[in-house]
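Folding Problem: From Residues to Backbone Shape
Fields: amino acid sequence; protein backbone structure tokens
RECORD BEGINS BELOW THIS LINE
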Amino acid sequence: MEAGSHHGPGRGGPQPLLLLLSLVSALVVTVHGDCGPPPRYPFAIPEATVKKEVYQEGERVKYSCRSGYTRKRLPLHISCNNGKWSPDGFTSPFCVVKSCPHPGDLINGHVEIKTDLSIGSTIEFSCNEGYSLIGHSTSTCEISDSGTSWSNDLPNCEIVSCPRPPNIPNGKHSGEEDDFFTYGSSVTYSCNTVPEESIPFSLIGDASISCAVENKTTGVWKPLPPKCQVITCPQPNVPQGKLISGFGRTYTYRDTAMFECKRGYLLNGSHLIRCESDNEWVPPVPTCQLNSCSNPPVIPYAERDWSLGSRDWNVGYSKYGEPEVFSVGTEVKYLCKKGFRAQKHKPRSVTCQANFTWSTNDGFCERICCPTPNVDHGKITKITSSSQGCEYGFPEKIKVSCNSGYILSGVATNQCQESGTWGPALSSCIPDCNSPKIDHGRVEAEHSFWNDMWKFTCNEGYILVGKPRISCEELTSSELPRCEALCPHPKVGNGVVIPNRTQYQGAVTISVKCNSGYKLIGDPNPYCADNRTWSPELPKCEWIIPEGCEQVQAGQAILKCLPNPGDVIQALEAYKLSLEIAKLELEVDHLRGKCTQPLPSLKEEPEDRTPPVSGKCNPPPELRTVQLQWQFRNQETFAWKESVSFECRPGYSAKQRQIRHARCQSTGTWSLIEEYCTQMSCPDPGEFANGRINQTDGNLFGSKMNFVCDEGYVFQGKGQ
């Protein structure tokens, strides 16, 4: 019975047999409260050495824990009570299995406890990523002399190391100065530099590699190191497309290019491509496929209809420098060119079809023809010949000439118009009744159904005197009109012209007289000649220098006769001030002269007898409200003492109807000229029925007002 006590738990033994024997003995025990042999437990054995089959009421049996078990805090004996052993060790075991202590933490690793730490249980050891296990990977809880212990000690986890990173041709890495590389270390590769004009090396692959672990123990570099190679991709060419980014003379590894198609074309493929390590573009270079119509066809004698008024007006779209493109279904209309007109029932447009071609149109325009001209007693000569398809077409010109004994009534040249008629109307040839001639004029024949007339007109600068029209019958009985010359208005400085007219014509003779102090140089009685000039030339009025006086010629500034040099200086300064400051009164006493003519007073603006510096004045300055009268406007210079007259500009008026004058002074300047005209105004326009007036500038001359009709009304007249 004690033979099985030397077997450890879980190692095979007589425990089932002991249990069976206990059950049999219990069956044979007497029913008088006695108990059979004590039960055999897998965790404990009875200490009694006497083998008994029957135990008396109250008898006890002490147990001891089997090997590998330890006492629990309960009594280690059972008693026979009423024929049963109690307490029942199967329901309340008093020995438990021994366990090993916790093995502790594994630095840079971890311990995996599969079940528990009891006798016979096994634990596993493993290291963290990048660390290698030095020692046993498992350990089992065993019984030892001292109790329990682990079969193997706790291992170590050491970090994995890698060899030096591999070198690559044409490149280098960042770890060349280091000697030791462990798990997690990384290096970065770069390619060597090249001369500026050379194509650089491209790094193919990952630029960085790291120290990793393979088979949990070996340190290796991952991924594979990159390569340094010269990569060039061909220039990408996309017909009907254009590059919008990625411009360059050469393309190397990882360079990108982006494309778009021209208007009217559709991109087939990817718009973005990249140069890869095989010297090819990925994805492949795209293509541009036609997706519209372009360049509408040329139709004979027709041109595009650009009219904005057409509801069906439809044009293509384009960018500067690119052709127009038209989507499928677009209709382009045409108009006939000048000299042509559209034929009925023929199409006047083309349409963009689904195959991106234009519908056919052989033409619909025919030339505009004029009727064959016919002139009695004359002939027709072509001046230009541009007609095709007809004898006389737009814009052909013809010349009409008359037979001997006939003259042309009308214009000699006619042209075929766009309307298909001759313009002007064809001339006619009428009998020649000895065409008259007049000097400085021209004669034209006028033909009518009831009479033939001669029309007389004068050349520019001449005026017709007599009847402007004479019939052929009147030529023998009537005096022909004549063209009399119109001479320019005679201008004589410092003199007067008699008679004083606004217009001089037809050999009129004038008389010229000089003002006091001036003498006449030339013929005093010129006449208006046939060539529109005065003959002889207009005379001049020159200033008379008094005899017995000396000329003060310092700079030819002014001439005065005074008794001594001091008086001369005083007079010069005083007169200079009188010219610069108008109406300034100067008092000069004791001026005595030896001249035959008295010296004028300096207190008033006198008749200017001072000899001029240059002898002439430039035209007066332009003023805002006044202007020179017409007879002075084209004159470039004015003589000393010559007067000019002014009048108000158009749109301006004076309070009193008056003409102001200015005189050329000896200093070459003009006497005082004033602005004496004010701007005219228009009367109030009054109410504008069924509309309104927009007026922003008032009623002054030159301002405008706009008329706007109310809704439902339209203008009758001008809107401004």
Q: What stands out?
A: Confidence is low (pLDDT under 50) at residues 1-30, 308-315, 547-562, 577-607. The longest strand covers residues 138-144.
